[in-house]
Amino acid sequence: MKKKPKVLVVDDEVDFGETLAERLELRGFDTKFAENIEEAHIFIEQGWIPDVILLDLKMPKIDGLKGVEIFKKSVPSACILMITGHGSVSAGIEGMKKGIYDYLIKPVDLEELIGKINECLKMKNKNNLKSKLDCEAS
Amino acid sequence: MNSALKRFWLNLKGIFSPYPKGLKNFQRVFITLFLFLSITPIIVLTWISYYKYKNLIREDSLKQAHLYTYNAKHTIESYLNQLKNTVLLISEIYSFEELSNPKTLDYIFEQLKKKYEGLVDISVIGPDGIQIAYSGPFNLLGKDYSESFWYQKVLTRKVYISEVFLGYRNVPHFIIAVSQKLNGKQQYWVLRASIDKETLDRFLRRIKTDEVYNAFLINEKREVQSSILNLRFNQVYTKFEDLPYNEKEVILKELEVEDKYLVRSLVNIQDTPWFLVIDRYNYQHKPAWNLFLQDLITICTISIVLLIPMSIYLGIWLTRLVKKFEDEREAVLIKAEQTNRLASLGRLSAGVAHEINNPLAIINEKVGLIKDLLAKMEDIPYKDKLLKQIEGIKRAIERAKFITYQLLEFARKMSPKLDFVQINEVIEECVGFLEKEASYYNIRFEKKLQPDLPLVLADYGQMQQVFFNLINNAIDAIIEAKRQEGVIKIKTSQLNENFIEIVVQDNGIGMPPEMIKRVFEPFFTTKLEKEKKGTGLGLFITYEIIEKFGGTILVESEKNKETTFKILLPVKTDGGSFYEEKA
């Protein structure tokens, strides 16, 4: 049986995050929802390593941009997509610089989001394959 | 001629009246102040020059009068001294007896007469005061002078020069008399020479030059002793109470006599009872003074005459400058205010969009989930109806999402796709799109697009939005004006090496000035209320987009005539564009 891709939704808007996670679950993803960065790390510490992280930009305590830096260290293999209600170009550019794959503006179209997640997964697989080949070659 | 005058008057009126009250006052105050500040020093300087030069020339005039009087006094004194010494010498050389001899006396008289023209006679008076010898034209032999004033004087003084008097002969004359002691006796005899009054007049005539108005002699009693050269003023010269006497010094006094400014000098003739009086013309009659006055008045008048139009011109020029700065300041303030307002609104829009987007996202997800769950369910009652309702909610979400996207766009939160854009292409596209609709209203386009127009760095879609808005507005304005024939002129050109200019002009309804000021404000619309055509965001977005790409948009309009939008956009150069620098 094919392994379900793991998607971690991190958003301080519980209603949004939970529902999005549930919808993705229905679409065949293994999803978890965290209200903030600390909560997200509980799953990671428990061994649940996400393939894709959907990260909100504006969050109390640790915001999305800072979160990107943290996730890049704790889960370097994860592909990060930023979701924002603010639609700030500069925040998007800043996020890109920090290594996010793309950013989407709320409210998101689920099909578009799934498309982005799939792009992310493809890129991740490509990267994994490349590093595997690199390892074998060396 | 009349129309020229009318034109001049209108121009003049135009110069002084086009400003608001404050500026008009400023102009008046400036002109008055400038005139005062520039004319006052000229008047003061003229006044000072006048007084300084007047004093200088006056002092010179007094000095000249002093010197002249002094010289004249010496001339008369030297003549009288010579004659006095001669008479004294004769009285010492000859004895009383010798001189009492008529032949000797006649001889001496003849000799003296040759040298002294005014000499009338010569006589010898014995110790008893009786004239014992006489040589001259009158028959005065044997006359008794013992009681005469002059006889008493000569006995006490040895030498005496008398005032002018008539005496026994009844002719005006004066005498020079010397007394000598008789040999071995305490008695004195007297040798007397009489001189005609004319002699004094002759001297005075010699003194009289063009600069001298009058000259004459007076005695201590202030009676005139000589002829008065200028007889017209006889009356004037009979009184000298206000003139002090000084035996040695020359006394000077300025006076005005019948419109004549004079310097009167008075000096005593030594050893005589006379005072010489000379009236010379004062400085006011000198050509140097007149010339100076003439020059001074001319310079002063020319300066003032030149200063008046100059002050007016300066006042007008400065007021214009102030008005220009004032207008520019006002424009900058309006612009700043507008920018500030727009920036605030931008921030507000972003905030609103964000706050709406989050709950909207929740609704979207919840509805999405319901739909997903419904899709998984087998037939349940009203399933189709429920799905239909969900679709309605989804459409509403899409609408709201579109609005927040728009708001975010106004707030410059949307990411533009920067590219090299050929504005001519954008315009052609927009015109092509709207041409058909415009033709329904008999509106035609006149395009003058510069073929080699430089590219600009911008977002193609947003540029489309700009020109779509402008052309759409132009069409609406023409429709509203109900023109028989509408024209939309579009012109592109390179303004300079940094900017291209795009002009969109229509012959529509136009706008009054108060409307022009608000045209770029959000939610402000000029379109007909009943038609509800305008959202009031078109020009606001246009303004925001142009500003975002480092450009400027200006509007000029006249009610019921035309409206012109001018856009300046920075040309993409090797050094990068405004937008890149900003980012």
TrEMBL record, chain B:
Organism superkingdom: Bacteria
Histidine kinase domain segment(s): 351-573
Pfam families per the UniProt record, alphabetical: dCache_1, HATPase_c, HisKA
InterPro entries for this protein: dCache_1, HATPase_C_sf, HATPase_dom, His_kinase_dom, HisK_dim/P_dom, HisK_dim/P_sf, Sig_transdc_His_kin-like_C
Catalytic activity, as annotated: ATP + protein L-histidine = ADP + protein N-phospho-L-histidine
Residue stretches spanning the membrane: 29-51, 296-318
UniProt xrefs under CDD domains: HisKA, PDC1_HK_sensor
Localization (cell): Cell membrane
Protein name: histidine kinase
Species per Swiss-Prot/TrEMBL record: Thermodesulfobacterium geofontis
